[in-house]
């Protein structure tokens, strides 16, 4: 993709999918501001890329003062923002009766209110400069339920609807807004989910992933760079007529009928 001359802001840009998105945007020609709650991780990402193309701004997207500072830092690169990637997110484990209300609220604040506040702040700048592309990183968990993760799934589902609302309301001002819905992706966050599976099976992490993806048609988890490639497309002019979309990148996981998969496994399919 050709992103030369474009400036981007990526939240959660120091690790996992966010770091992969940052690398891809830079490689495709963009200048990028990355934000996140762990300054060391942000600096590691900055140091891994060509000097002067990435700036880091530590901050928490659930904090309004931090959002002001993050957007100001991004705008300070070239005086405009063409691309916003709302990637920062947390998981909150436990079914409804066991979930701590604090964890529920934190998931809402980071996974949903954070993107809302960033879009509220960034969209006027995009309108002023003639348009822009917003990419919200949702999840397969925003479309399908994950056991014991109501906070994560609910916030990711709401982010998809917020994406569609922004696409409708600001399309006339040339603001595009799309959501990417990754399935299992080999990040630190995902590894924390798979590790207990591996331990229960008495195997290593690769054995855990083999079990975790046994009913996924492609029989594997995604690599962060694969999510980043789709993000770069949505950020580029090549996707200029795409807005309000929710794009699954899940190895086919969403098409699987669980009862059918169990039957196929039993019959050796």
Give a structural overview.
By secondary structure, the protein is of the alpha/beta class. It folds into 2 domains: 7-185 and 223-259, 3-Layer(aba) Sandwich (Rossmann fold); 186-221, no CATH class. The protein is built from 9 helices and 7 strands. The protein has helices at 16-27, 39-47, 64-78, 101-128, 150-170, 188-201, 205-212, 224-235, 258-267; strands at 7-11, 31-36, 54-58, 83-86, 132-137, 175-182, 246-249. It has a 7-stranded parallel β-sheet with strand order 3-2-1-4-5-6-7, sandwiched between helices. Helix 4 links the parallel strand 4 and strand 5. Helix 1 (16-27) packs across helix 8, helix 3 packs parallel to helix 4 and helix 4 (101-128) runs parallel beside helix 5 (150-170). The protein is globular and about 60 Å long. It starts with 6 loop residues before the first strand and ends with a helix. The model has no long low-confidence stretch (mean pLDDT 95).
In short:
By secondary structure, the chain is α/β, with parallel strands linked by helices. The protein folds into two domains: 216 residues, Rossmann fold; 36 residues, no CATH class.
């Amino acid at each position: 993709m050709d992103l030369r001359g474009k400036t981007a802001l990526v939240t959660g840009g120091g690790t996992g999918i966010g770091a992969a998105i940052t690398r891809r945007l830079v490689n495709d020609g963009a200048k990028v501001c990355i934000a996140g709650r762990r300054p060391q991780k942000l600096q590691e990402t900055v140091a891994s890329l060509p000097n002067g193309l990435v700036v880091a701004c530590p901050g928490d997207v659930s904090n309004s003062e931090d959002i002001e500072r993050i957007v100001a830092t991004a705008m300070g690169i070239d005086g405009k923002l063409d691309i916003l990637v709302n990637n920062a997110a947390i998981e909150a484990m436990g079914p409804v009766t066991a979930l701590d209300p604090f964890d529920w609220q934190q998931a809402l604040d980071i996974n949903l209110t954070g993107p809302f506040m960033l879009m509220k702040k960034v969209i006027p700048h995009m309108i002023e400069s003639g348009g822009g592309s917003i990419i919200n990183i949702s999840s397969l968990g925003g479309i399908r339920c994950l056991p014991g993760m109501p906070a994560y799934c609910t916030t990711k589902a709401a982010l998809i609807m917020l994406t569609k609302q922004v696409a409708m309301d600001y399309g006339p001002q040339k603001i595009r807004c799309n959501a990417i819905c990754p399935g299992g992706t080999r990040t630190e966050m995902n590894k924390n989910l798979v590790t207990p599976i591996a331990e229960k099976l008495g195997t290593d992490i690769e054995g855990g992933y083999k079990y975790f993806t046994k009913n996924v048609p492609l029989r594997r988890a995604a690599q962060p760079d694969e999510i980043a490639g789709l993000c770069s497309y949505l950020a580029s002019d090549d996707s200029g007529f795409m807005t309000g979309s929710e794009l699954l990148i899940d190895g086919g996981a969403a098409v699987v009928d669980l009862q059918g998969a169990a039957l196929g496994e039993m019959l050796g399919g």
